């Protein structure tokens, strides 16, 4: 939507095209969500961005960056906002908490719950809440309550009688302290991080636990405040490459950086993928079986020529204090022009233990392909931190401050 006849289109036309595209993609599935997206002027909440960028269905609009250039506040991509609103199953009169503000998503929620409902949106950054409050007032949504505070604790100060009917979190979080604020039949839509993986879940209560439905691959600006747990990070090649690891030994950044210029172990798995064929369950399988699992990131604007990762975002890697091995990919030759494009997964290892890590990651990919690739996706259950959840026969328990996330392969 950045070139062609839409480049000079009006906001109303761009909004109509966005809604039509979201319906075509299947992200909008209900008349309530459709009406909300058609009504709220998205461009009024990001006046600094070009209209085509504001209404681009797959794209995030960054509204603030930190000193290091990374986004600290943004308006999520329309497709993901629509998916989260659909899974929240909001109804007129619902009482909704939004964690992470900006204004636009709160306005969408306000449209759906109507004048008989209520929306409370909380953010820790005064820059964000000031903008949200101003933009909401200017677009006719001044009844939305905007709260400046750390949602880890501040949300409990605004819980209505009977609890919130829905809690929608629009920042990436490592834990969920808001379960007690939810009404018995309420739903929490949360982008939750575990072992550096992010999935947006819809959590519904089941006794003293929550069942996680509709896990969706996503990326969000990380939450700030008391509830954060920053991943370990090793910045290599003057910032062109980053390794992230949630748990494990302290990373020796100097040694890891030097490893990039040393010998490399390269293995190819024989496991292939076609264009548009999903393989996100591979991440879940490797994280299930190997606690050295992390992510490698390559700056697309700073190709150092040292790594060729399989994907620009959320690319799996095994990491130790001084070595790592990441997932690579190469296009296979086609026998005939009509043959489908196929790519083969490989592994590249660096450092003293690079060859060993490469072999382990190579084997994980092959086991996933043989035993779990076409298998049903794992299920997720959220327990309180003091509970004793049953250990899954195949799976992993991710223990956090307030909760425990249990991933189970059936």
Automatic annotation (TrEMBL):
Any one GO cellular component localisation term in the record: cytoplasm
Single GO MF annotation: protein-L-isoaspartate (D-aspartate) O-methyltransferase activity
InterPro entries: Methyltran_FxLD, PCMT, SAM-dependent_MTases_sf
Family matches, as Pfam families: PCMT
EC number(s) given by UniProt: 2.1.1.77
Keywords attached to this entry: Cytoplasm, Methyltransferase, S-adenosyl-L-methionine, Transferase
UniProt record, GO biological process: methylation
Compartment(s) of residence: Cytoplasm
Family note: Belongs to the methyltransferase superfamily. L-isoaspartyl/D-aspartyl protein methyltransferase family.
UniProt-recorded name of the protein: Protein-L-isoaspartate O-methyltransferase
Organism: Streptosporangium roseum (strain ATCC 12428 / DSM 43021 / JCM 3005 / KCTC 9067 / NCIMB 10171 / NRRL 2505 / NI 9100)
